[in-house]
Design a protein that fits this description.
The chain is mainly α. The chain has a domain of about 120 residues. It contains eight helices and four strands; from the N terminus they run H-H-H-H-H-H-E-E-E-E-H-H. The chain has a two-stranded antiparallel sheet. Strands 3-4 form a two-stranded antiparallel sheet. Helix 4 runs antiparallel to helix 8 and helix 5 packs antiparallel against helix 7. About 10% of the residues have low confidence.
Length: about 270
């Protein structure tokens, strides 16, 4: 028996094992490849004695056998299409390469993504509480601080552009600052007020420390996103279009227990 006959015998035996109802069709195909029933039975005995588990699929190179040899849900042609699509997406990811996950910027950026919303929640909550305690240093003259706030915003508000999150002066109102990205402030500035309980102007050191933490987190996240974009790594990360589709196809292959038809020779 030559190698080509051996390959056909292995493939036909596989079909008969997984799909007993096709055994008659398989037996009728043996002669076409120069094989006999004795060859089939001998191979069967060998597999049983060696406790060998054969692959569970075959392709449409046997046109007289129905083209659903692996699954009642997908034809062999469709299964081949699934594997080719999977490989194409994997090639895209392989060509891009993996991001340097051990790099400091990567680790810092991933950590920032995980922590930034939680830290900001505590910051915004504490900030709102402290705003309610702040009062004008001159009772009854609070409205006079608005012109001062306006002038401060005009000349200093734009300086906040150099930060990722924090501000030099903290405003409150319908708008947030003179920063052209956010619009005009309401000219109600925390640093122009004082906490009567502590005698301290502006926000507490604890709140400002939280703000510094957020500045670091937002900066780390910005650097991470810039590096990912520069390296083209976005499509290799979870959540990207490419990675999501690749994961879907791999899940389908696993759940349906599909085998690549190309394992058994050239598919037709």
């Amino acid at each position: 028996m030559n190698k080509e006959q051996q390959r056909h015998l292995t493939n036909l035996y596989t079909i008969a094992q997984k799909y007993p109802g096709k055994k008659t069709v398989v037996i009728s195909k043996l002669e076409e490849y120069g094989l006999t029933v004795d060859d089939f039975n001998s191979y069967d005995s060998l597999m049983v004695s060696q406790n060998v588990v054969e692959p569970e699929s075959i392709v449409d190179e046997y046109p007289d056998i129905p083209a659903f040899t692996q699954s009642d849900k997908y034809s062999d042609a469709k299964i081949l299409e699934i594997f080719e699509a999977r490989d194409s997406l994997q090639n895209v990811i392989d060509e891009i390469g993996k991001p340097p996950t051990d790099a400091e910027w990567f680790q810092a950026g991933k950590s920032a993504d995980e922590r930034v919303e939680e830290v900001r929640y505590f910051y915004e909550t504490k900030k709102a509480e402290e705003w309610e305690e702040l009062e004008s240093p001159l009772p009854g003259l609070g409205t006079l601080t608005a012109p001062m706030g306006f002038l401060t915003e005009v000349f200093a508000g734009g300086a906040d552009l150099r930060y990722d999150f924090k501000e030099d002066l903290h405003e409150r109102g319908a708008f947030t600052s003179y920063n052209p990205l956010t619009g005009f402030g309401a000219w109600d500035i925390a640093e122009f007020k004082k906490n009567p309980r502590t005698g301290q102007a502006g926000f507490s050191p604890e709140l400002l420390e939280l703000e510094e933490s957020l500045e670091q987190l937002y900066g780390d996240r910005r650097v991470f996103r810039e590096k990912i974009e520069e390296g083209g790594y976005a499509e290799t990360l979870p959540g990207s279009t490419t990675k999501t589709e690749l994961d879907r196809l791999n899940t389908m292959i696993t759940e349906e227990q599909l085998l690549d038809p190309r394992m058994f020779g050239e598919a037709q």
